[in-house]
Specification:
Blueprint: H1 7-20, H2 38-58, H3 64-90, H4 101-105, H5 114-138, H6 142-165
Helix pairs in contact: 1-5, 2-3, 2-5, 3-6, 5-6
């Protein structure tokens, strides 16, 4: 199908996004203790900023139920951003700043349809699950691990919704691990 996003194209776009999604300063900040988890949370926050931008970019291609769910997911992603910012500030860190929508858009794959937008959203949600699961190992405090696990579970819910919107089973595997 000419002009539609292939799985390889979506993954390529996600790879570009991953390579370039870092905030202007994803380090923990001058007030954070080394090993506090602020730097790790900031790297996840930088990606969450990119995901919010991606939902905004793809929304214009979606209609009906897909648009309604994408808007709900986008709002929850914004909540994740706020929660991560609170956690980072609580550790004495400086939060990663988002880039401009245009800066993000340059790294996104070309989306020509709602199906493309959903495929890209699926790739991004998979990556979010992967980042939160990997982050659990590097967070030193139980409270931080609990917060990351709660957000990760919500990302798994987003992934299930996107799977259904794409006409697939909500959970194609027994466990959501962030792998394709």
């Amino acid at each position: 199908m000419a002009g539609s996003l292939t799985r390889r194209g979506a993954l390529g776009g996600a790879a570009v996004l991953l390579a370039s999604c870092g905030s202007h300063d994803p380090r923990p900040g001058p007030g954070a203790r080394p090993g506090s988890g602020a730097g790790l949370l900031n790297s996840i926050l930088a990606f969450e900023h990119a995901v919010v931008a991606a939902y905004g970019a793809g929304a214009g291609l979606l209609r009906g139920e897909a648009l309604r769910y994408a808007r709900e997911i986008d709002e929850e992603e914004r909540g994740h951003v706020r929660r991560l910012e609170e956690l980072i500030r609580g550790l004495g860190g400086t939060t990663a700043r988002p880039r401009t929508p245009d800066e993000y858009a340059r790294s996104f794959p070309r989306l020509g349809s709602g199906a493309d937008a959903l495929r890209f959203a699926e790739d991004l949600e998979e990556e979010l699950v992967r980042r939160y699961l990997h982050g659990l190992w590097g967070l030193p405090e139980p409270e931080l691990r609990r917060a990351a696990a709660e957000i990760c579970a919500n990302e798994g819910e987003h992934l299930a919704v996107i799977h259904v919107l794409r006409g697939r089973p909500a959970a194609p595997h027994a466990f959501v691990t962030g792998t394709l």
